[in-house]
Specification:
The chain has 3 domains: 4-146, Globin-like; 154-254, Translation factors (Elongation Factor Tu (Ef-tu), domain 3); 270-406, Rossmann fold, CATH 3.40.50. The chain contains 13 helices and 12 strands. The chain has helices at 4-12, 14-35, 45-50, 52-66, 75-88, 94-110, 116-146, 236-244, 279-292, 313-322, 337-341, 353-360, 373-386, and strands at 154-164, 169-176, 190-195, 204-209, 219-224, 250-254, 270-275, 298-304, 326-332, 347-348, 366-370, 393-396. The strands form 2 sheets. It has a 6-stranded antiparallel beta sheet, covered by helices on one side. It is globular, with a radius of gyration of 22 Å. The record marks 84, 396 as: Influences the redox potential of the prosthetic heme and FAD groups.
């Protein structure tokens, strides 16, 4: 436990972290990869270049400092990050490296303001925080390895089927090469895919949501091809999966992880709201709800650019036709002429408060949403303006966690 003096010193650094947090974490990653380049085999290089990982770490450090006297307040965040760490293969031996590098980065950025007293306090605080992560993750590693059908580290899977779902999204059906049992998972969870791409110095790991219901003899991921944009290079892993990985090929997969999961014991109506490839965990939730909760109303709301970009539509519509408690609604930003001719969408433009309210009818529901960050920010603002309790609002970031409260409101 930390003594009162250490706690007060850490709390006194909160305003500094609010201003300099991202600069510290940027310097942290520069030093980390300079001294330990082998860790580039674990971290997502694209998130580093886009600054998302630095911002996520800065938010986590800020939260830890803010709640240093009541670390139980950040236990949900510890568990969320712990899932990602377990899925990637981050182990206890990595934490001392991270601690030493973080202290050095604080000193580099703050200079003389980072006194010996402050650095010592942060060293003690980091030890306590690291122990919390290590303890939580040790339980996760044990559970992943010892559950029925579970395994440790990465397991070899074969691509049993590859299906083009839209112009940009392709599904991969994965079965174990050893033909052994598959570990169960909760709807909404993800797996990590580890690839060695020809010509690349380091391995690449990406986390993809499982897009089918549990209980199948395969895992399914549905991957969006991330082509180059003006401000962003093409996604190395997604392009490689689309272009180079075919049926019969082998992929290395970690056991399912993640805390964005369906609360199946709740009997209230569910609203699932997705944008683009963000529908993948929600389709898993939808299929599960349709099969096991026949009396629970479910509204599935999806936003896409147009019908050509809309994946898994037929699956969802078949569920809506088969199960009377399921309804589906489509919002197309820029519908094609074919979409217009076929009346293939329910709304043109963006999801807005009035339209969503006309679908939901009442606010006493539980809400799950996923998609691009601006999309999630818009949905979050709608629900917040409605007064939906935070306990009924659930969302997942693809990649490092962000902060929706600071994003733009509905367009």
């Amino acid at each position: 436990m930390l003594n009162e003096k250490t706690i007060q010193i850490i709390k006194s650094t909160v305003p500094v972290l609010e201003v300099h947090g991202t600069a510290i974490t940027k310097r942290f990653y520069e030093k980390l990869f300079s001294s330990h380049p082998e860790l580039l085999n674990i971290f997502n290089h694209a998130n580093q270049k886009q600054g998302r990982q630095q911002a996520a770490l800065a938010n986590a450090v800020y939260a830890a400092a803010l709640h240093i006297d009541k670390l139980e307040n950040i236990l949900p965040v510890v568990k969320q990050i712990g899932h990602k760490h377990r899925s990637l293969g981050i182990k206890a031996e990595h934490y001392p490296i991270v601690g030493q590098t973080l202290l050095a980065a604080i000193k580099d950025v703050l200079g003389d303001a980072a006194t010996d007293e402050i650095l010592q306090a942060w060293a003690e605080a980091y030890g306590v925080i690291a122990d919390a992560f290590i303890s939580v993750e040790a339980q996760m590693y044990d559970q992943a390895a010892t559950q029925e059908g579970g395994w440790e580290g990465y397991r070899r899977f074969k691509v049993a089927k590859k299906v083009k779902e839209s112009d940009v999204i392709t599904s991969f059906y994965l079965v174990p090469q050893d033909e052994g049992r598959l570990a169960e998972f909760q709807p909404g969870q993800y797996i990590s895919v580890r690839l060695e791409i020809p010509g690349e110095t380091y391995t690449h790991i990406r986390q993809y949501s499982l897009s089918d219901a549990p209980g199948k003899p395969y895992y399914r991921i549905s991957v969006k091809r991330e082509d180059a944009l003006q401000d962003r290079p093409a996604g190395k892993v997604s392009v490689y999966l689309h272009e180079a990985v075919n049926e019969g090929d082998e992929l290395h997969i970690s056991a399912p992880a993640g805390d964005f999961t369906l609360a199946q014991q709740d009997s209230r109506p569910v609203v699932l709201i997705s944008g683009g490839v963000g529908l993948t965990p929600l389709v898993s939730m939808l299929k599960t709800l349709a099969e096991i909760s026949p009396k629970r109303q479910v509204a599935f709301v999806h936003a896409a650019q147009n019908g050509n970009m809309h994946a898994l539509r037929q699956e969802v519509e078949e569920l809506a036709a088969r199960y009377p408690q399921v309804s589906a609604y489509w919002c197309y930003e820029r519908p094609s002429e074919q979409d217009r001719a076929n009346l293939a969408f329910d709304k043109m433009g963006y999801i807005d408060s009035n339209w969503l309210k006309s679908i939901v009818g009442e606010q006493n529901c539980t809400y799950y949403f996923c998609g691009p960050v601006p999309f999630m920010s818009a949905v979050y603002r709608i629900l917040k303006d409605w007064g939906v309790p935070a306990s009924d609002v659930h969302y997942e970031f693809f990649g490092p966690a962000g902060v929706l409260e600071q994003e733009p409101a509905v367009r």
